[in-house]
Amino acid sequence: MPVSIEVLGLNRGSLFLAFKRTGLISFVLLLQACGLITKESIYEGVRSQEKLKHAGQPIEPTAMPSYQDYENERNRLKKGDE
Question: How far, in Å, CA of 64 to CA of 51, rounded?
Fold first, then answer.
C-alpha cells in the first residue's frame, strides 16, 4: 500500500524544496571537485604558455622542465640549504 506524502506530514511544496536544496548542494560539490587547482596544474599552464610564446623557434636550453623535474630540483636545493 503506497504511503501518501500527507501521511508523512509533508506537502508538495516542502518536498520540492527539499529536492531542490539537495540538488543544489550536489551541484555545488560537483563543481568544486571539478575545479581543483593544484600547484602542478598552475606550473604546467605557465609551461605551456612559455612553449606557445616560442613556437617555431629553436628550443632554448633554459626551457622550463617538467613539473616532476622541477619538484626534484626544488627538493634537492631545499635539502642543500638545511
Answer: 9
